[in-house]
Design brief:
The protein has helices spanning about 1-20, 80-95, 110-125, 145-155, 180-190, 195-200, 230-240, 265-280, and strands spanning about 20-25, 40, 45, 50-55, 65-70, 75-80, 95-100, 140-145, 165-170, 215-220, 245-250. With about 280 residues, it is of the alpha/beta class. It has an eight-stranded mixed sheet, sandwiched between helices. A three-stranded antiparallel sheet has the order 2-3-6. The protein is globular, with a radius of gyration of 17 Å. About 45% of the residues are buried.
Length: about 280
């Protein structure tokens, strides 16, 4: 009976948590996923349409800042709870509007996540006046594959969608690194996974320019899922282009800790992030 109740709770997590949020859907992505979306253990699977969940601070406490959050999941799922809703609740406690993107999975259509990320940024800015947001202070936060997506829009934006900042946690950045997992490359790029031009286009360190927004990067030295080389490559590219950036490498913790309080350096990480966001 206990296992049954646990499963029911897991399946209802997204629906229950979403009641706190303003829910908005983007147009269907056309990614070819026919299976119905489902949720389990704080993760969403088989996502064919991007859904945004906005959580807003009280008007009197709003700082004018906002962040679109891209949870991780290897582009195979979206870990919406500890890398999404938990992040949003913390941001709102600091007066920052938070918009969690439960984004359509690429399923071999690499342009879909980026197109939807741009649409999300545009939508948030359209809502700026109603949501007490300053359009010029909307940034992105991403985890793992969501960090790849956040860094992609942070390096391949158009005039309307440029983020004000990027906060990247253990991000998968490069498809050119010797440490890149083939599965991650194939999930995003599909049949173009061996195309040198596509590998370069979707490697964030190759797309950095002087116009790239400021970045905050946090990861662990013992991450065996996404090698620290990804963050190091991106950091070097940012430095070479004189983009304001800082990187924090914690001694241990592995991968996927998100905003879980069990992460040994959780409190320290929050202090660093809060200070950095206040400077944006």
């Amino acid at each position: 009976m206990k296992k049954i109740l646990s499963l029911i709770f897991a399946l209802c997590t997204l629906q229950a948590a979403a009641e706190e949020f303003i829910r908005m859907e983007l147009p269907a992505s056309g990614n070819g996923i026919a299976q119905a979306q489902y949720e389990k253990d704080g993760k969403a699977f088989a996502i064919s349409r991007t859904t945004l969940y906005a959580l807003l601070p009280e008007k009197s406490k709003a700082t004018g800042q906002a962040a679109v959050i891209f949870p991780g999941g290897g582009y195979r799922l979206v870990a919406f709870e500890h890398e999404g809703f938990a992040v949003a609740r913390w941001l709102v406690s600091k007066g920052i509007a938070a918009i969690v993107s439960c984004y359509a999975l690429p399923n071999g259509h690499p342009q879909i996540p980026l197109e939807d990320a741009k649409a999300a940024m545009n939508l948030v800015r359209e809502k700026a006046a109603a949501w007490n947001i300053e359009p010029s202070r909307v940034g992105v936060i991403g985890f793992s594959a969501g960090g790849h997506l956040a860094s992609t829009i942070g390096t391949r934006f158009d005039e309307a969608s440029r983020p004000a900042f990027m906060a990247l946690f253990y991000p998968n950045i490069s498809f050119l690194s010797e440490y890149t997992r083939e599965a991650a490359r194939t999930t995003l790029l599909g049949p173009q996974a061996d195309d040198p031009q596509m590998l370069k286009l979707y490697s964030g360190e190759m797309q950095v320019t002087v116009s790239t927004p400021p970045a905050f990067i946090a990861l662990c030295n013992d991450d065996r899922t996404v090698d620290p080389d990804h963050s190091l490559r991106f950091y070097r590219a940012l430095k070479e282009n004189k983009v304001p950036c800082e990187m924090h490498i914690f001694p241990s913790g592995g991968h996927g800790w998100g905003f879980k309080p069990e992460f040994k350096y959780h409190g320290q990480m929050l202090e660093l992030l809060e200070r950095w966001l206040k400077e944006r």
